[in-house]
Amino acid sequence: MTTFKIKPKQGVIIRDPDSFEILSETGEEKPRTSYWLNHLKAGDVELVKDTRTSKSTTQIQKDKE
Fold first, then answer.
1. Where does the source fall among the domains of life (predicted)?
2. Sheet holding 3-8, edge to edge
3. How many domains are there within the chain?
4. Strands (E), the chain
5. Which range of residues forms the domain containing residue 10?
6. pLDDT tens digits for 9-65?
Protein backbone atom coordinates (compact mmCIF):
# COMPACT_ATOMS: atom_id res chain seq x y z
CA MET A 1 0.00 0.00 0.00
CA THR A 2 1.30 3.45 -0.84
CA THR A 3 1.80 6.08 1.81
CA PHE A 4 2.02 9.83 1.97
CA LYS A 5 3.15 12.33 4.59
CA ILE A 6 0.41 14.52 6.01
CA LYS A 7 -0.08 16.87 8.93
CA PRO A 8 -3.20 18.44 10.43
CA LYS A 9 -4.17 21.99 9.52
CA GLN A 10 -3.50 24.49 12.29
CA GLY A 11 -5.99 24.10 15.12
CA VAL A 12 -7.38 20.77 13.88
CA ILE A 13 -7.03 17.56 15.89
CA ILE A 14 -7.19 14.33 13.88
CA ARG A 15 -6.89 10.86 15.40
CA ASP A 16 -5.50 7.80 13.68
CA PRO A 17 -8.40 5.33 13.32
CA ASP A 18 -6.18 2.35 14.20
CA SER A 19 -4.08 3.63 17.11
CA PHE A 20 -6.35 6.50 18.27
CA GLU A 21 -3.19 8.62 18.59
CA ILE A 22 -3.40 12.29 17.57
CA LEU A 23 -1.72 13.06 14.23
CA SER A 24 1.59 14.84 14.84
CA GLU A 25 1.72 18.56 14.01
CA THR A 26 5.02 17.96 12.19
CA GLY A 27 3.49 15.28 9.98
CA GLU A 28 3.47 11.51 9.73
CA GLU A 29 3.58 8.86 7.02
CA LYS A 30 0.10 7.40 6.63
CA PRO A 31 -1.41 4.89 4.20
CA ARG A 32 -3.40 6.34 1.29
CA THR A 33 -6.71 5.00 2.59
CA SER A 34 -10.14 6.52 2.14
CA TYR A 35 -10.01 7.75 5.76
CA TRP A 36 -6.96 9.95 5.18
CA LEU A 37 -7.96 10.92 1.63
CA ASN A 38 -11.36 12.13 2.89
CA HIS A 39 -9.64 14.28 5.54
CA LEU A 40 -7.34 15.66 2.82
CA LYS A 41 -10.31 16.45 0.56
CA ALA A 42 -12.19 18.10 3.46
CA GLY A 43 -9.16 20.29 4.22
CA ASP A 44 -8.53 18.85 7.69
CA VAL A 45 -5.00 17.74 6.76
CA GLU A 46 -2.40 18.89 4.27
CA LEU A 47 0.42 17.18 2.41
CA VAL A 48 3.93 17.65 3.75
CA LYS A 49 6.53 18.17 1.07
CA ASP A 50 9.70 16.18 1.60
CA THR A 51 12.56 18.67 1.33
CA ARG A 52 15.27 16.05 1.65
CA THR A 53 17.11 14.99 -1.49
CA SER A 54 18.55 11.56 -1.81
CA LYS A 55 22.19 10.96 -2.62
CA SER A 56 21.31 9.44 -5.97
CA THR A 57 19.23 12.48 -7.00
CA THR A 58 22.08 14.81 -6.07
CA GLN A 59 24.56 12.68 -8.01
CA ILE A 60 22.33 12.64 -11.11
CA GLN A 61 22.07 16.43 -11.01
CA LYS A 62 25.86 16.75 -10.78
CA ASP A 63 26.33 14.33 -13.68
CA LYS A 64 24.08 16.47 -15.89
CA GLU A 65 26.22 19.57 -15.30
1. Bacteria
2. 28-31, 3-8, 45-47
3. 1
4. 3-8, 28-31, 45-47
5. 3-64
6. 999 999 999 999 999 999 999 999 999 999 999 999 999 987 665 555 555 555 556
